Amino acid sequence: MKRPLYFAVAATVLLAATACTADPTTQVAADTGGVNTSADQKRVEVKKNDAAAALLPAKIRERGTLIVGGGYGSGSVPLGFYADDNKTPIGLEVDIAYLVAGELGLKPEIEVTSWENLFVGLDSAKYDVGFSNITVTEKRKQKYDFATYRKDDIAFEAKKGGTWKVTSGKDIAGKTIAVGSGTNQEKILVDWNEENIKGGLPAATIKYFQKNTDTYLALSSGRIDGYFGPNPSIAYHIATSGETESIGKFSGAGPTLQGLIAATTKKDSGLVEAYQAALNAAIADGSYAKVLARWNVASEAVEKSEINPPGLPITN
């Protein structure tokens, strides 16, 4: 049954990908807050932008397809997940991929994989691009090129009614916290933990789960004190569950820099300029704003796409 293309409760909604390795067929959309989860998505469509398409390598233009890696194998509602038919990839990141492919005059081929295998696929050029809530970091810039398209904020989530708040790294001392492996949230958490240990504070215990459902089961049962993840995903869960609250929010790139999410490709692949041009064309023609509004994440919009801007710094 088709549901309306809007969220009835959440004001900011986006479940962002963490490192998950589960079989992508094992988890389909659960509580999606009123968003359309059918295979018939009626996506925002665009016309080919000739200037952007001209920046593509000839072999990609001749092939006529854009092979997109999505690292949300176990399902991240509504970032990237399977429709009600349990086979059609849908979500915000999928819609952005369709926009970019359309502006470039290409047909998108969405290949859902695990977070870890997404980067393996980019390294081997199996995928032309990754659209999977990938944050720009200085370490990743050593291997990949980025064309930005969305802001990145991260937050701590805990059971409702507690007194614990996180305003700085010192506030995680002695706590048990879940985080996605290989994410920028993990790096920030590990760095904070190391600083606390050096300063004589109790170490935090870091936990990893394959699926978001496992994380929230651990949170509700008290096996963890909190979850550190993308802010929009946490806002979505808070709005739909009614059992948790946000206890601290930060930029995904650290205290002095706004984190950014980007289309990601193998370094020096010759593709990033085309992605930037396609994204800027979508911003200019209004289709980008329509997609973000469709998923109720307009607050994360950027004014323009940038290539390889400053990202989460390397501290070790």
TrEMBL record:
PROSITE patterns named in the record: PROKAR_LIPOPROTEIN (PS51257)
SMART domains: PBPb
Limits of the Solute-binding protein family 3/N-terminal domain: 65-299
Record-given protein name: ABC transporter substrate-binding protein
Signal peptide annotation: 1-22
Pfam families on file: SBP_bac_3
Superkingdom field: Bacteria
Alphabetic keyword roster: Signal
SUPFAM superfamilies hit by this protein: Periplasmic binding protein-like II (SSF53850)
